[in-house]
C-alpha cells in the first residue's frame, strides 16, 4: 500500500471511529494521526506542525470574540429582535434574513470566508432564538453566500472572466453565470425550508414583532406570556398572537432589569448596562469591521479580535467571560483535521483520488467526472483554490462541444455545495456559532450533509446546468 492510499484509509477510519464512539474527539486524534503518518512518511514533526491552520484559529477566535462581546452587552439579542420585524413575525421566513445578507455580501465582492464569519452568528443565533433546526439555519445561510459567488465582483466570477478567452466566454456571460448560481441557491433554500416544515424542524405560525421600547415604560400585561411563549422559550405562536407579547422579554433579549423594573432600553450585564448608546457603539464597531474587511481586504479575524478588545476596554466588560465562551473544542477539531489533510495533500493523496475517478469518455461524461473530483477534493480543501486549479481543465471540453456557461456553473456549484461540511473554515465558523450543547449533533449533521452533497450535487448540477 502506498503512502497516499494509507493516508486515505486512515482518514476513513477516523470518520468511522467518530461515528461509532460517542466520546471520540476527531480533531485530537487527527493531530496524533498526522504525527504518526509523518513518522512513517519521513516528514519531520515541525513540517507537520506547519500544516496547522493558524489563520483559521485567528479567524474563528476573532469573529467569535466580537459576537460574544455583542451578546454579553445585549446588542446581539436586540439585533435579532429587530431582524424579526423584517419578516413580520413569520418564523418560516426568519432563515431568509441571513440568506439575503450572505448573497448580498458575496455578490459585492466579500470573500466567502469573511461572509460566513458575518452570517454564521446571525443564522445560528436566530435558530436558537426561534427554536428551529441549526442544520437548516446553517445550510440556508451558507447557501445564500454561495448564491452570489459568480457575480462579476465576486472572486469566483473574477477568476472565471480572467480566463474568458480560453473558456469562450463573452462579457455578456456574467449575467447568466450570476443568475445560474442565484437560481441554484434559491432552489436549495426552498427545498430546505420545505423539508423543515414537513419534518417539523421548522415551526409554523407567527411570533409577535418586537416593539420599540420607550424609557420608563412599565412591563404591561402579557409580559409573563412573552416570557413563557416568546421565541426564546418555545418557538412560534399561533396566528392572532398580540403584537409585542412575544420576542420582547425572551431570554437574553434585553427586557426588564434584575430589579424587576420595566425599563426596556437597557439590559443589565454584571455591573454594566447595555444602553442604546452601548448598542450604537457595538453596532458601529461591527459595521466598521465589515467595512474594513470588504472595502480594504483586511483580515476579518484580526479586525474582530481588535474590535472585541476595544469594546472590552471602553465598556469595561469582563474579557475572561468572552475568552471562556470561545469554541476552543471546535478550533481543535478543525485545526487537527486540516493539519492531517495538509499532510495528505503533501503526500499526493488527492492526486491519487483523481486518478481513481478519471476515465475516458464523451465531453459531458468528462465534465461529470470533473465535477465529482472537484466535490471530493473541496470537501477538505479550499474551494476557491480547487476552482482556480480545475478551471484550466475546462477549455478542452468546451472545444469538444460543451457550453462554456454550463460547464463553469456545473464545476463551480459542484465544489461549493459541499462547503457546508464541518471539515473546513465554513463548518468551523458554523459550529463555533452554535450553542455548545448543539455542537456535537450539528457536527454529525453537517458531516452527513457534506458527504451526501459530494454524491448528489455533481450529477444534479451537471444535469441542470451542463447544457446552458
Subunit organisation of the chains: single chain
- Estimated helix fraction: 55-70%
- Helix and strand pattern: HHHHHHHHHHHHHEEHHHHHHHHHHH
Rg over alpha carbons: 23 Å
Our measurement of the CA-to-CA distance between the termini, rounded to an integer number of angstroms, reads 43 Å
Taking the sheet with the most strands, its summary is:
2 strands, antiparallel
Taken from the alpha-carbon principal axes, the silhouette is: globular
Give, in spatial order, the strands making up the sheet with the most strands: 1-2
Let me know the average pLDDT. 77
- Taking pLDDT < 50 over at least 5 consecutive residues as the criterion, the unreliable ranges are 209-273
Question: Domains counted in the coordinates: how many?
Answer: 1
Structural class: mainly alpha
Q: How much of the sequence is in beta strands?
A: under 5%
Describe the structure.
- With 468 residues, the chain is mostly helical.
- The protein has one domain (56-205, 279-465).
- The protein has 24 helices and two strands.
- The protein has helices at 3-20, 26-41, 45-50, 54-72, 75-86, 96-107, 112-130, 134-147, 155-162, 164-167, 174-199, 223-229, 231-234, 276-296, 300-315, 319-324, 328-347, 349-357, 363-378, 383-390, 394-399, 404-416, 425-433, 439-465, and strands at residues 268-269, 272-273.
- Strands 1-2 form a two-stranded antiparallel sheet.
- A hairpin with a 2-residue loop joins strand 1 (268-269) and strand 2.
- Helix 6 runs antiparallel to helix 7, helix 14 (276-296) runs antiparallel to helix 15 and helix 19 (363-378) packs antiparallel against helix 24.
- The radius of gyration is 23 Å and the shape is globular.
- The two termini are 43 Å apart.
- The chain crosses the membrane at residues 28-44, 51-72, 92-123, 135-158, 178-198, 289-315, 321-343, 364-388, 408-434, 446-465.
- Residues 212-267 are annotated as: Disordered.
- InterPro entries: MatC_N (IPR009827).
- Residues 249-263 have a biased composition (Gly residues).
- Residues 6-148 form the Dicarboxylate carrier MatC N-terminal domain.
